[in-house]
């Protein structure tokens, strides 16, 4: 167990928490050195709530979600804790540390697609092209919910109908390539939900879709979350989508969470210069008359990084000898609001508003 204080106040001991990631690290040991894709991330997933994870490309969002399912490709190494409540009701649930499970063992395979399911940007990744949609959805149901094939087909049909699939009976016997992009996305959500997961991880699930279908899929995920009380982890680089989907938000930068709070505070009282820069780079009702700023530079490659704040090289508030002297901890600025910036409590520098 990592020997340090847990920065977030909530923990797996709380009734409404289903998963807690603690000091999660994913490092790739490459010939050129150690690449720190995820570097000490703490997350709390609450029952029936959505945690949004946002940040630019390369911040470590996808690798974090891969770690939660233990599907990090080699030579990635996962460290820290991923504590999941599983099996049984409120009182009897056992807490399992997914990091300790064998990466391809039975227990993690039961969790994958059972307790935790995932949907991707590209549904073709989730489906095999040579089996029908029905066979693939039924496989998940037969694995996790019933052994009876007839019943599994009925559940498959119901699930397809529940995600708004037109002609669900006919779709069951079709192959993935026969569906439109939007319908394939619905089929993938149906497959993910067929096993009644407690947590649905959605990694940029709508980026490839046109705007209307995107809106429909987001609405669908929100409806299913309400109806089934599923927890959702929603990963995106789009703050507009974050606003629509999230209850709480983790802003990631260079493998670390730099700001963590509820969605209203994030938009109305951001404290980290990176969050503010992200907010300033999206068109919105409040800043449509001012020039949009883009964040200068790109996310550094997470190898052989210097000491100090990861945002130092791009931060307008950076102070030499202060911000680049030592790594910056996640600081609690008020209840349920955490910021990784030495000036987070200074109203003039990192303070409320933008
Ligand atoms: N399999 C891998 N092997 C080596 N490095 C990897 C691997 N996967 C990701 N990385 C590196 O880890 C860092 C984080 O990548 P990640 O894909 O998690 O970012 P992201 O925030 O999800 O970005 P995007 O939105 O582009 O997917 C990047 O620097 C990336 O190059």
TrEMBL record:
GO terms for molecular function: ATP binding; ATP hydrolysis activity. It is found in: Cell membrane. Its main location: membrane. Residues 19-279 form the ABC transporter domain. The lineage of its organism: Bacteria, Bacillati, Bacillota, Bacilli, Bacillales. Keywords: ATP-binding, Cell inner membrane, Cell membrane, Membrane, Nucleotide-binding, Translocase, Transport. Belongs to the ABC transporter superfamily. InterPro entries: AAA+_ATPase, ABC_Ni/Peptide_Import, ABC_transporter-like_ATP-bd, ABC_transporter-like_CS, Oligopep_ABC_C, P-loop_NTPase. GO terms for cellular component: plasma membrane. This is ABC transporter ATP-binding protein. GO terms for biological process: peptide transport. The keyword Translocase applies. It is a peripheral membrane protein.
């Amino acid at each position: 167990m990592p020997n340090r204080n847990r920065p977030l106040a909530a923990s797996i001991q709380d009734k409404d928490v289903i998963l807690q990631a603690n000091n999660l690290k994913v490092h790739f040991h490459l010939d050129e050195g150690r690449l720190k894709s995820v570097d000490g991330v703490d997350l709390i997933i609450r029952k029936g709530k959505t945690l949004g994870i946002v940040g630019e490309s390369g911040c470590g969002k996808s690798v974090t979600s891969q770690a939660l399912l233990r599907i990090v490709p080699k030579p990635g190494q996962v460290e820290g804790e991923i504590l999941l409540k599983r099996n049984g009701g409120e009182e009897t649930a056992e807490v399992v540390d997914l990091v300790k499970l064998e990466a391809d063992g039975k227990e993690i395979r039961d969790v994958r697609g059972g307790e935790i399911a995932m949907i991707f940007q590209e549904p073709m990744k989730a489906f095999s092209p040579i089996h029908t949609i029905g066979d693939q959805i039924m496989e998940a149901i037969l694995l996790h919910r019933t052994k009876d094939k007839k019943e599994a087909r009925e559940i498959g049909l119901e699930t397809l109908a529940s995600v708004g699939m037109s002609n669900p009976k006919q779709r069951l016997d079709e192959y993935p390539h026969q569906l439109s992009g939007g319908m394939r996305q619905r089929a993938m959500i149906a497959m993910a939900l067929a096993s009644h997961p407690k947590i649905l991880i959605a990694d940029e699930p709508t980026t490839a879709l046109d705007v209307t279908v995107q809106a429909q899929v987001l609405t669908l995920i929100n409806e299913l979350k309400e109806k089934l009380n599923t927890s959702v982890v929603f990963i995106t680089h789009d703050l507009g989508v974050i606003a629509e989907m999230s209850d709480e938000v983790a802003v990631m930068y260079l493998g670390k969470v730099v700001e963590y709070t509820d969605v209203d505070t994030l938009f109305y009282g951001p404290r980290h210069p990176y969050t503010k820069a992200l907010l300033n780079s999206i068109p919105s009702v409040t800043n449509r008359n001012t020039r949009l700023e883009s964040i200068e530079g790109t996310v550094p490659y997470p190898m052989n990084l210097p000491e100090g704040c990861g945002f130092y090289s791009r931060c307008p508030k950076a102070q030499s000898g202060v911000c680049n002297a030592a790594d910056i901890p996640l600081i609690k600025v008020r209840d349920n609001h955490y910021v990784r910036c030495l000036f987070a409590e200074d109203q003039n520098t990192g303070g409320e508003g933008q």
